[in-house]
Amino acid sequence: MAVMRADLADLLHLCGDAIDEKDLVEILDRIGAPLDGREGDTLLIEVTPNRPDYLAIEGIAYSILCFLGKRPKLTENVPSSKYRIKVDKVESRPYIASLIAKGVAMGDATIAGMMQFQEKIHETFGRKRKKIAIGMHDLDALKGKNLRYYAGAGSERFVPLFETDEMNMRDVLMKTEKGKEFAHIIKKEYPIVADEEGVISFPPILNSERTKVRESTTNIFVDITGTDRKSVENTASIIAMALEMRGGRIESVEVDYGNEVVHTPIMKRKSQEFSTESVNLLLGTAFSKKEIADLLHKTGIDIVNERGRTVAYYPSWRVDIMGNSDIAEDVAIAYGYNNLEPEKPELFTIGRDTQGPRKLVRELMLQMGYSELNTFVLTNERDEFEMIREDKEMPCVKIANPLTVDNTILRTSLIPSMLRAIALNKKYKLPLKLFEIGEVVHPEGKTDWHLCAAIYGEEAGLETISGMFRLLLDRFGMKYEASSAQAPSMIEGRCAQVKMKNGAALIGEIHPEVLRKYGLEYPVAIVEVGVIKGF
Q: pTM of the prediction?
C-alpha cells in the first residue's frame, strides 16, 4: 500500500469545513483511506492500489463530501480548449492524454499536492514511469495551440527543468539527475511533446524549464504519456477531478492518432449493471433497492432504472469498479463493515491440524484477553528498520522489481507491524492487548513463525508483559533464563532476552523516540519469540 501525506488544514479546507478534525479519522476509515499515522499537522493516509484517485488529496476530499451527503458537482461534459496534439508513431509509449485547467489557485498546498500525486502515481500505478508519466506546464508559456507528440532522434535541444543550459536528449540522460535515474526506460527512440516553438516535454524524463509551473501560474496544461491507453486516460480523469476541486475550469484537448480522434479528459460517468439480489447475496444482507441506492449515493454512485435493468453510474476516475462485486463493496463501505452481521457458513468440511503449537499458543493468548492481528509479510525499509531506530541497511530479503515503494522487502520481525497496528487502533478503549502469530523471513530466505504480543496503555510495562509471557512458558512446561539485553527499539535497562531450550525471546518497553514516530502517547510493552523453536 502507498502512504499519502495530507496537510490537515488543507484537507479540512477542501471539505469546506463540512467536518471537524475529531470526526475526520473515523470517516477516513469508513471510506477506505485509514489513517496510518501523524507527523504534527501532516496526516499519513494509507491508500490501497485499487484507489489511485486517493493518491490525490482532492480525491479523498471528494469521497468525504460524498459520504457526508455534500457531493461536489464536477463537470462531465468538458468544453473544448481548441488545443490539439498530433500523434506520430511513438512505439515505446504510444498513448497520450491531455487536459487544460484554468483559474487554478497554485498555492503551496496545491503545488505540494500535485507534486506528491505525480510522485505516487509514477511509483505505483505508473510502474516507476515505465507505464505512465505525467507532465505539468504553464499553459500561458506554450506557443500556439497545435502540438506534436512524436519520436525524436535524440538531437533535439531544449533547456530541461531546473537547468540553465540547453541540452540535447542524450545530454539530458547523461547530465541531469532525473535523466540518470530513468535513462534505462529510453531504448531506441526519444518521446517528445512539442509546441510550435519546440520541446516542452521529454517523457518520462523531464519537462522544459520554459513551461515550468510557478506559484504565479493559474492556467495549467497537462500531458500524460504511457504504454497503456486506458491507464493514461484514467490518470487524466483523476488529475482533472483534482484540479477542478481546486477551483480550476477544465477544458479538453483533442488527441489525433491519425486513424482516430479522441478528446481528453473523459469525465462522463461510467456505468455498471448490477442487481439488488446479487449485492445482498454477496453481503448476506436484505437491503431494498432504495436502501442500496441511498448507500451508494454516499460513495458518489447514482442508480438508474433502464428498461428493467438496474444500472450504477459512477465517476470516470473510479478505476476500481469493474463488476458487480465492486458495487457490493461500495454498499458495504457505506453501510459499515462493522455493522454487517457475521454468519456461520453452511458448508461442512473435515480438516486436519497443520498449525502445531501455533494453535495452542493462539488459544492461550485469546484466553488471556488478547486480540489477534494478521498483517502483511511485505513491507519496506522505512517501516521495518528506520521507524524502530534500526539501521536501514540491515540485511533482509529484497524484492527484485517492487511495484510500490511501500512493498520492497520481506519483514524480519513482527514488532514494526505490531506498532503500526497499535497506532491505527489507539482511539479504542485502553489498554490495548494485541498479539500476532505471523511469518518472518530471515536474510538467507528461511521462513519462521513468530509470536509478538504487546500491551499499550498507562499501566503497560516490562512487568505486565513479562507476567503474561511467564504464564505462557509455564503452560508449556518450559525452563527459561532471563538476562539484560539491548535493542535500538527498546528503553535501555527495560529490555531483556529470555533464553529457552530451542530459542530466545526479546522482551521490553518501546523507546520514547519510537513512540513519538508512531504518534503514541502511552507506553508499549512488547515481546517477540519464535513459535516453533520457542515452544
A: 0.72
